[in-house]
């Protein structure tokens, strides 16, 4: 396993890192590993079909063109 040394890390940033690690119940090294993993891993692709809370029940049986037409009428 690799070792990472960081030089000239500002004290204020290190204190924030320590506080975050404590809140998450991790060591500072574990928190750094976690943060780097989160930042560098490719996000999972999102699907519009999985979105919730957008009122899709109102237009689920309506074709896209009909939905757009209905929306335009409601803005007039």
Q: Helix share of residues?
A: 40-55%
Q: SS-based structural class? A: mainly alpha
Radius of gyration: 23 Å
Number of DSSP E strands:
0
Mean pLDDT: 84
Strand content: under 5%
Total of helices: 3
- First-last Cα distance: 63 Å
User: Outline, from the CA principal axes?
Assistant: elongated
Provide the succession of SSEs. Answer: HHH
Major sheet summary line: none
Point out poorly predicted stretches: none
Q: What does this protein structure show overall?
A:
- With 76 residues, the protein is mostly helical.
- The protein has a domain of 30 residues.
- The protein is 50% helix and 0% strand.
- The protein has three helices and no strands.
- Helix 1 crosses helix 2.
- The longest helix has 13 residues.
- The model has no long low-confidence stretch (mean pLDDT 84).
Keywords:
76 residues; 3 helices; elongated; 50% helix; mainly alpha
Task: Spell out the blueprint of helices and strands.
Elements: H1 11-23, H2 28-40, H3 64-75
Helix pairs in contact: 1-2
Short structural summary:
By secondary structure, the protein is mainly α. 50% of the residues lie in helices and 0% in strands.
């Amino acid at each position: 396993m690799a070792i990472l040394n960081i030089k000239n890390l500002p004290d204020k940033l290190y204190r924030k890192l320590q506080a975050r690690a404590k809140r998450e119940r991790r060591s500072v090294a574990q928190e750094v590993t976690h943060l780097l993993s989160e930042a560098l891993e490719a996000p999972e692709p999102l699907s519009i079909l999985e979105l919730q809370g957008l009122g899709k029940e109102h237009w689920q049986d309506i074709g896209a063109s009909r939905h757009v037409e209905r929306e335009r009428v409601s803005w007039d």
